[in-house]
Amino acid sequence: MSGPLSGVRILEFTQIIAGPFGCMLLADQGAEVMKVEPLGGEPWRIYQMFMPLESKTYQSLNRGKQSIALDLSKPEAREIVHRLVKDVDIVVSNYRPDVPARLGIDYETLRAIKPDLIYVDSTAFGRKGPWAMRPGYDIVAQGVSGFTATGGRFDENGNPVLPGGTATADFATGYAIAWGACAALYHRAMTGQGLLVETSLLVNALNFLGGSFMSLPAADELVRTAFLADVAAARARGEGYADIVKRRQARLQVAQLGNIYYRNYLTKDGAIAVGNLSPSLRQKMRDALGIEYDARDHDPEYNPRDPKYIEMGNALTARVEQMMVSETTAHWVDLLERAGVPVGELNFVEELDQHPQVIENEYG
């Protein structure tokens, strides 16, 4: 297989999403990936099968790989792995921290066989700390990291649901696995030395949360400190998770009230998304919609928490919503695109495999 990683050989001990996705990205770049699966195949093979031991879910995360089935609890299987590792460049594992050593596939064991080995170790929560030995999947990582609370979504019975409807922490970790492997290959090319690369679902979920997670005292006094005091008081009163999440959402939404520029709108026959994060883009949207004044950009005393400005913003939002729903998606995409406003229709992913944008860029 051609590509910038042609000639790189990878031995993969991963299942489900994060590890398989990361190794698939490396295979897409030309690496030769040998995936080690249990004798019955990894779990995704039997998820919504279209034929025995094959599913679309599995194939979407494992293209371009070879597979070998081994029972790693058997000494003869470990011997096979130890022979294979002599000829590979990278090993990728996503077991709980205590498992690889028990199976004889940990970094120290394999490095003794191949001293310049690159070993990418992906765990749920990291190798240290009170959660280190917990098993964990994406839904757990999103929960403990605060990602689920940040999304603030609940089902019809009031249970919290994943914010994006997908395995966000898993896929982010897959990119981190591929990125870490490539960085380690560069390190080895420069120094001749192998490397242990560590990542986790938790750290990648936290990376998505940016400023909400990081500590910066000078800025935290404005919002974070007050919120944490509010959470402590609410818990002392016996309030539940849902109530606290809704109050958090209300705090965060104050700054968005009246923001017509970065949001989704219903149209006459569908929906669109607009994204304008600079004064010049906001002006383009106002020009396109015939809006002459918005306090957000025109009043030097504008304060998003002032009731007067909240009322003005809500009135402007209602006005634009009425405009959007009166015309079709195609009308608004054409109008806003010609005005230079970032805009797109809200599609269903199932529609996109035959879309010319996807086909012409060979994304399918």
**Poorly predicted sequence stretches spanning 5 or more consecutive residues:** none
Major sheet summary line: 6 strands, parallel
Largest sheet: spatial strand order: 5-2-1-6-7-8
Structural class: alpha/beta
Mean pLDDT across residues: 93
Number of helices: 17
Report on this structure:
The protein has helices at 18-28, 56-62, 75-85, 99-103, 107-113, 138-145, 147-151, 168-191, 201-213, 217-220, 224-236, 241-253, 279-289, 295-298, 307-325, 329-338, 356-360, and strands spanning 9-13, 32-37, 49-51, 54-55, 65-69, 90-93, 118-123, 195-200, 262-266, 271-275, 343-345. With 364 residues, it is an alpha/beta fold. The strands form three sheets. Strands 5-2-1-6-7-8 form a six-stranded parallel β-sheet.
Q: TL;DR of this structure?
A:
This protein is of the alpha/beta class and 364 residues long. Helices cover 47% and strands 14% of the residues.
Which descriptors would you attach to this protein?
alpha/beta, six-stranded parallel β-sheet, globular
Topology:
Blueprint: E1 9-13, H1 18-28, E2 32-37, E3 49-51, E4 54-55, H2 56-62, E5 65-69, H3 75-85, E6 90-93, H4 99-103, H5 107-113, E7 118-123, H6 138-145, H7 147-151, H8 168-191, E8 195-200, H9 201-213, H10 217-220, H11 224-236, H12 241-253, E9 262-266, E10 271-275, H13 279-289, H14 295-298, H15 307-325, H16 329-338, E11 343-345, H17 356-360
Parallel strand pairs: 1-2, 1-6, 2-5, 6-7, 7-8
Antiparallel strand pairs: 3-4, 9-10, 10-11
Helix pairs in contact: 1-8, 6-9, 8-9
